[in-house]
């Protein structure tokens, strides 16, 4: 199956600085985006103004695809670091998917894998004990690469010190 990212090969690219908005909640949906470099967070402000991070898009990740069939964006897109973003008008992206069934299937496959990963993460987060969360994560992913434990802590919803205490307990 061919991929879908080639649809962005000739798309205009722009750079946004850390902290800048790519789009804001309730703006009309006009474009589909592909992150080429950097990181962009999809955030929704809570009542107290605290941003709730829904997703962080990294290089090679589509952004705003959940809004393809919406009138307005449901969240803000904020650069976490300087980011390079390719963008296509929504109509052009949808036309490419209609004309290239393999690309459409590839996009569906990409999102199916993301849904599976999110469902697994939700189940891990439902576990009460750090030990149980860690066991579940390791069962799914195996040991992280060197320096990857902080990311594991974030993914299982515990502080790095809590994770390191559990790792130390296991070593003893």
Task: Report on the architecture of this protein.
- The chain has 172 residues and is an alpha+beta fold.
- It has two domains: 5-99, Sandwich (Jelly Rolls); 127-171.
- Helix content is 40%, strand content 23%.
- The chain is built from five helices and eight strands, in the order E-E-E-E-E-E-E-E-H-H-H-H-H.
- The chain has helices at 90-99, 101-126, 130-141, 149-156, 160-171; strands at 13-16, 21-23, 31-37, 40-45, 51-57, 62-63, 76-79, 83-89.
- The strands form two sheets. It has a four-stranded antiparallel beta sheet. A four-stranded antiparallel beta sheet has the order 2-7-4-5, with no helix packed on it.
- Helix 1 (90-99) packs across helix 2 and helix 4 crosses helix 5.
- The chain is globular and about 60 Å long.
- The N and C termini lie far apart (48 Å).
- The mean pLDDT is 93.
- It comes from Sulfitobacter pacificus.
- This is Cyclic nucleotide-binding domain-containing protein.
- Pfam families: cNMP_binding.
- Residues 7-114 form the Cyclic nucleotide-binding domain.
- InterPro entries: cNMP-bd_dom (IPR000595), cNMP-bd_dom_sf (IPR018490), Env_Response_Regulators (IPR050397), RmlC-like_jellyroll (IPR014710).
Give the SSE layout.
Layout: E1 13-16, E2 21-23, E3 31-37, E4 40-45, E5 51-57, E6 62-63, E7 76-79, E8 83-89, H1 90-99, H2 101-126, H3 130-141, H4 149-156, H5 160-171
Antiparallel strand pairs: 1-8, 2-7, 3-6, 3-8, 4-5, 4-7
Helix pairs in contact: 1-2, 2-3, 4-5
Protein name: Cyclic nucleotide-binding domain-containing protein
Pfam families: cNMP_binding
InterPro entries: cNMP-bd_dom, cNMP-bd_dom_sf, Env_Response_Regulators, RmlC-like_jellyroll
